[in-house]
Amino acid sequence: MANITIRNLDDALKAKLRVRAARLGRSMEEEVRVILKNVLAQEDVPKSLGESIHQRFADLGGFDFPQVEREPIRDRNLFEDL
User: Fold this and answer.
1) Which of these, 39, 37, 31, lies nearest to 15 by C-alpha position?
2) DSSP letters of the chain?
């Protein structure tokens, strides 16, 4: 396991971390591990299938679909008329 040292941590931020860890019954060190794990796990998961596809192909450029002519809505077929 790796170790990390965080220097110049704001006192107010450290106090919030201490309170949050105590409220959840964790040590400050464990709370930092949980926070980092949750934040980094969220980055790996695409928000939606559409976003995932967009990210995959964004570097290739865009594509405009041609305009399709629409017809008026046809009457539905009724089997009684056959």
Assistant:
1) 31
2) -------S--HHHHHHHHHHHHHTT--HHHHHHHHHHHHHHHHHS-S-HHHHHHHHHGGG----PPP---PPPPPPP-GGG-
CA–CA separation, 69 and 48 (whole Å): 31
What is the widest separation between alpha-carbon atoms in the chain?
84
Q: State the average pLDDT for the chain.
A: 86
Comparing C-alpha atoms, which of 52, 35, 32, 53 is closest to residue 44? 52
Q: Is 3 exposed, middle or buried (0-12, 13-18, 19+ CB in 10 A)?
A: exposed
Residue 71 has pLDDT above 70, yes or no: yes
Give domain limits for the chain.
10-47
